[in-house]
Amino acid sequence: MTEAGTIEFIVLATTKVGENGLVLHTLSREFGRRGFIVHPGKKASAALFLPLNILEADVVENPKSELWSLRGLHARDALSGIRGNLHKNTMTMFLSEVLFRTLRDGAVEDGLYEWCIGSILTLNALEADFSNFHIRFLLEFAGALGFRPTFQDIAPFTSEHAIEMRQMLQSSFSEAMLVPLSGSVRNSLCESVLRYLEYHTDQAIRIKSLAVLRELYG
């Protein structure tokens, strides 16, 4: 096995393997979306692998397998503004699952990683008025994938809340955070953008954590 240097990455999901192994599904600048095997040990905190955590680790190549491993994992940022807030934590569950289920393994989208890091740090820093964040995130995510949604593009996926969708699209980020939306309208807009993403990525995006988000904003 050979060390291939240190990388910074975003945690998208984890899959348990055996007694003490995890496949850590990540997004990084170098590898795009990719899974790595890790053996965190009994003393490692499960909090290290929470959704959208930003970590650093050494990559160890395995010539006999495409599943490389990570060693020396540590957090780049504590994200205390997210981890101390139930609503933000729920959002990160949802947003990480969207990234995990939308991005293809091994695909590297130019600029996507930097945009994701900026979005995570923005959510971490917001002290109030972040209830619309996940909708704006999905719209900007579509743009980061190259779709650049306009109102005309997304209107067919939006039902009775076209006015609110136009506001979310055409406002600045700070203005979009202040657009007054009820919980049911937020849920409807969120589902509209997911349908838009499904259409443009030509795949079904089944988000299990969407039900939790609906409860939060129901």
Topology at a glance:
Layout: E1 2-17, E2 21-28, E3 32-38, E4 54-61, E5 69-75, H1 80-83, H2 86-102, H3 112-125, H4 133-144, H5 151-154, H6 162-170, H7 173-177, H8 183-201, H9 210-216
Helix pairs in contact: 2-9, 3-4, 4-8
List the defining traits of the structure above.
single chain; 218 residues; alpha+beta; 2 domains; 5 strands
User: How does the overall form come out from the CA principal axes?
Assistant: globular
Q: Helix/strand-derived class?
A: alpha+beta
User: Sheet with the most strands?
Assistant: 5 strands, antiparallel
Identify low-pLDDT runs. Answer: none
Radius of gyration: 18 Å
Count of distinct strands: 5
Q: Order of strands side by side in the largest beta sheet?
A: 3-2-1-4-5
Beta-strand content estimate: 15-25%
| Number of helices, where a helix is a run of at least 4 consecutive DSSP H or I residues | 9
Distance between the terminal alpha carbons, to the nearest Å?
50 Å
Instruction: Provide the succession of SSEs.
Output: EEEEEHHHHHHHHH
Helix content: 40-55%
Overall pLDDT score: 91
Number of domains: 2
What does this structure look like?
- The protein has 218 residues and is of the alpha+beta class.
- The chain has 2 domains: 74 residues, Nucleic acid-binding proteins (OB fold (Dihydrolipoamide Acetyltransferase, E2P)); 137 residues, no CATH class.
- A hairpin with a 3-residue loop joins strand 2 and strand 3.
- The mean pLDDT is 91.
